[in-house]
Amino acid sequence: MRNVRHQRTPRVHRDWEVESLEEPQSRFYTSQRLRLHYAVWGHEASPPLLLIHGNRDHARTWDEVAVRLQEQFCVYAVDLRGHGDSAWAVGGQYSMPEFVLDVATLGAQLNRSPLTVIGHSLGGAVALNYTGIFPKHVSRVVAIEGLGPPLREPTPGSLRMRKWIKDMQHFDTRKPKRYASVDDAVKRMREENPHLTPDMAKHLTVNGMNTNAEDGSLSWKFDNYVRLHSPYEFNVAEAREIWNQIRCPTLLIRGSESWASDPEQDGRASAFHDYRNVMIKDAGHWVHHDQLEPFMTVVWRFLQDTA
After folding, report:
1. Are 237 and 209 in contact, with CB atoms under 8 Å apart?
2. Rg of the chain over all Cα atoms, to the nearest angstrom
3. 1, 62, 142, 238: least buried by Cβ within 10 Å?
4. Whole domain around residue 142: which residue ranges?
5. Where does 174-214 have alpha helices with state H?
6. 77 DSSP β-pair partners
């Protein structure tokens, strides 16, 4: 196990435009009666690699990563339920078990295990849960800030349930925000993550929005209900038991400017058997967007060392 503080390296200059990223294949599968989408880069004869995005994100968030990996891997990037071009869940309930179920269903359909899996935030948590539940199906896993929220004092269950019900009832009347133009939506995207370049913000926005037929305005593809979390708080003990089942090499990545804590300092890393712990300088929560080249250097080294 290693704890590495990765310094920022000079970024290679690229005249990158939104239109320059090659389009992946678009495919669908069914899980729990929902039609779910995933994108594919590369050739099916290459080793399989699965990418899992974070909350309120979508499969195309991985484009810059996928095009760098497609020469060595067949890259699959899933749209989680309620996100991207996947169906929304009836009732608006989105929890870890359903997300892991959907990934397991896709894995079974692909029938290409063991997979290399990379996930960010919620997707990192899904990746670690999937790997711990089905350790023989994953050869190595990368989790970008996927170890859950900061530890805090628990809130009484009655208060949590009361708040959850109130929030759910409020969301029944809430309408998705509409934007008059792509530029307006890009501005909101950059407010959420100031590290984004204008081109990357535009790419994420264009691929993350639908046009509203009645007035031509734009709205985010994700279901508003994905904003709400389960009334049951993050169970660290249960998460550690699942993580402890992972036997493959594991890479834990976080940004120096993010809220995520050092898993070696907070004790979460001790649940893993074979891991590397890397902090990438000058990156926030979206490490793979904020410092793409240093991120790819760390990931490539991990993939090569564990081949």
Report:
1. no
2. 19
3. 238
4. 2-175+223-305
5. 182-192, 198-207
6. 39, 51
Find out whether 69 and 300 touch, Cβ atoms under 8 Å. no
Q: What is the largest CA-CA distance in the chain?
A: 55
- The CA–CA distances, whole Å, from 95 to 35, 72, 138, 184, 199 equal 17, 33, 22, 31, 32
Domain count, the chain: 1
CA distance 175 to 28: 27
3-state SS assignment for residue 232: coil
Dihedral angle, C-alpha 42, 46, 50, 51, nearest 10 °: -40
User: With bands split at pLDDT 50, 70 and 90, how would you rate the model's confidence at 7?
Assistant: very low
How buried is 287 (Cβ within 10 angstroms: 0-12 exposed, 13-18 middle, 19+ buried)? buried
- Does 209 reside within a domain? no
Residue 265 CA to residue 150 CA, distance in Å, equals 12
For residue 112, give the DSSP letter: -
Q: For residue range 113-166, list pLDDT tens digits in order.
A: 999 999 999 999 999 999 999 999 999 999 999 999 887 788 899 999 999 999
Of 22, 6, 252, the residue nearest 142 (C-alpha): 252
- Alpha-carbon torsion angle 257, 260, 265, 270, nearest 10: -140
pLDDT 10s digits, 227-254 = 998 888 888 899 999 999 999 999 999 9
For the domain that residue 259 is a member of, what is the CATH number? Answer: 3.40.50.1820
DSSP line for 22-65: PPPEEEEEEETTEEEEEEEES-TTSPEEEEE--TT--GGGGHHH
User: Is position 11 within any domain?
Assistant: yes
Whether residue 151 lies inside any domain: the answer is: yes
Answer whether residue 270 is part of any domain: yes
